[in-house]
Amino acid sequence: MFLEAANFLGGLVGIFGVVLGAASLYASNPTVQLAGLIAATATLILTVGWGAYRSFPPTLKDLASCVGTHLTLKELDGVTPRPLLVGLVGPSNVGKSTLLNHVVQQVPPPRRTDNVSVAIVALQLSPPAYIGIVDGAGQKFAQQFSITSVADALLVLADHTHSDQLPALQAERLKVHEDFSKQLQDHIVDQGARAVAHVHLLLNKMDLWQSDPSRPQLVKWFEDTLVASWKNGNWAKSVTRAHHSNNVPANVTDVAEILRGLAK
Ligand SMILES: Nc1nc2c(ncn2[C@@H]2O[C@H](COP(=O)(O)OP(=O)(O)O)[C@@H](O)[C@H]2O)c(=O)[nH]1
Ligand SMILES: [Mg+2]
Asked: Rounded to an integer, what distance in angstroms lies between the CA atom of residue 46 and that of residue 13?
């Protein structure tokens, strides 16, 4: 790098120096000769300085030192190692915020921006692992979908009901999840079929539905309809799933461990 930059400019300086030198020879006035010498020397110093400056790689920020901050995608280029970028998606009330609050040590306050930004967080594990949570610019579906264009992994949350108390499945709610996943998948195709590296599907609120008579129907729907829709396309390079409750610490740890595994 230094040699390349220096060689090119050195060549120019060489030519410039020859011209200056030749000009000085013809100049009988010693002031003009001195000026020529100074100009040639200054050019040489500037050239060598420029080459040295260009040869230094830009300083990279350590990922761990960015925990608790939001970075733009451009800023992320200056961070090493590059974090796994995770998108947390699903319709309203499915438990995204609750999961995020449990799975990371501290959720940075939201950043007000029109662009996609990334919150650098530490997973609740020891030793901690660091990932980037991709923030769509809000809660709307379209904004959540924009996440898919940058995320390496998607956590797709589903549940049996909009409620946080009722144990029985609601058919309309399952339809909401089907539509949500369908739109997300369409969006991935619209982006030119850039598959997301990993999709992890969570059937949340297990504490509510696990003892309900509708459980077998719910579990079958999750497997045959929702999980199948992700597996039967080129949306994701790999697909995993789990039954999950944000109220069960072991389930939350499992999610953190999956993310740690993907981050390696
Ligand atoms: N029973 C139960 N409630 C949950 C669970 N996860 C989230 N909730 C509740 O569901 C509601 C919506 O959760 P929230 O995280 O705000 O959903 P978001 O809109 O997807 O961010 C809140 O009242 C949560 O306490 C769960 O696993 N079990
Ligand atoms: Mg929320």
From this structure: 10
Lateral strand order in the sheet of 70-72? 70-72, 117-122, 130-135, 84-89, 153-158, 196-203, 236-243
Nearest to 176 by CA among 190, 158, 154: 158
CA-based R_g, the chain, Å:
29
Query: What pLDDT digit, counting tens, does each position of 183-202 carry?
Result: 999 988 877 656 888 999 99
Distance from residue 119's CA to the centre of ligand 2 (Å) = 15
* Rounded Cα–Cα distance for residues 233 and 41 (Å): 66
pTM attached to this predicted model: 0.80
Give the per-residue pLDDT at 96.
94
Contact 131, 121 (CB under 8 A): yes
The string of pLDDT tens digits covering residues 109-141 is 877 666 788 999 999 998 989 999 997 655 677
Mutation pick for ligand 1 pocket among 93, 157, 169 (CB with most ligand atoms within 8 Å):
93
Q: 108 near 69, Cβ under 8 Å? A: yes
For residue 248, the tally of other CB atoms under 10 A from its CB is 14
Residue nearest to atom 3 of ligand 1 (CA): 164
Atom 10, ligand 1: residue with shortest CA distance: 164
What's 115-157 look like in SS3? Answer: CCEEEEEEECCCCCCEEEEEECCCCCHHHHHHHHHCCCEEEEE
Residue 81: DSSP 8-state: S
